[in-house]
Design a protein that fits this description.
Blueprint (H helix, E strand, L loop, with lengths): L1 H26 L3 E15 L2 H9 L6 H5 L15 E9 L7 E11 L4 E10 L4 E9 L5 E8 L7 E9 L3 E9 L1
Antiparallel strand pairs: 1-2, 1-8, 2-3, 3-4, 4-5, 5-6, 6-7, 7-8
């Protein structure tokens, strides 16, 4: 009798663990979302005057001159310290007819047209996805990390891969977990 109770308890435990892991798997399932973006605005903060002031007025004095990075600092920027804020319209397909929301990228440049960017994608249903990561502006595409979201995308993580598409747009493929 005791062994029957033990076997029944073991079977119940196995059933419960399978049920719980199955529920967790559906809640944490992969989700894919593709949107297309078109740049609609750009605000650029040129920090050239700050760079010039920093060479003269800094707490390290002449020691800082020896430590300064090797940078041309001339020609077309962006240069280290510059900030660019891009506004984007999002569309649900490559035809660019059905609006899917908007996005904003805030990019902090370092050297050689590389930047660390924070992206906020606000979708028409009211949900937001947040992503960030390094972007090489010399390349034609990039992938950044999705770190969270709101409403429908609360607690998600994953990646956003961005590449060129037709009609001067970009295709954004989100691979989401959670």
């Amino acid at each position: 009798m005791r062994s029957v109770k033990f076997i029944a308890a073991g079977a119940a435990l196995v059933f419960a663990s399978v049920s719980v892991s199955g529920a967790g798997a559906s809640a944490g399932a992969n989700r894919a979302l593709t949107v297309y973006s078109v740049a609609t605005g750009l605000q650029y903060i040129n920090t050239a005057d700050d760079r010039a002031r920093g060479k003269i007025n800094n707490p390290l004095g002449s020691v800082a001159d020896k430590l300064a990075p090797k940078s041309a600092g001339s020609g077309n920027g962006p240069f280290a310290g510059d900030v660019a804020i891009y506004a984007l319209s999002l569309y649900s397909s490559a035809t660019l007819k059905q609006r899917a929301g908007s996005a904003v990228y805030t990019c902090y440049f370092n050297y050689d047209r590389h930047a660390f960017c924070q992206a906020y994608y606000t979708l028409t249903a009211g949900s937001t996805l947040v992503a960030s990561g390094p972007i090489d502006f010399n390349a034609t595409g990039f992938t950044i990390v999705v770190t969270g979201g709101t409403k429908k995308y609360l607690g998600v993580r994953g990646e956003a891969s961005v590449g060129a598409a037709a009609r001067h747009s970009q295709r954004i493929d989100f691979e989401l977990l959670g």
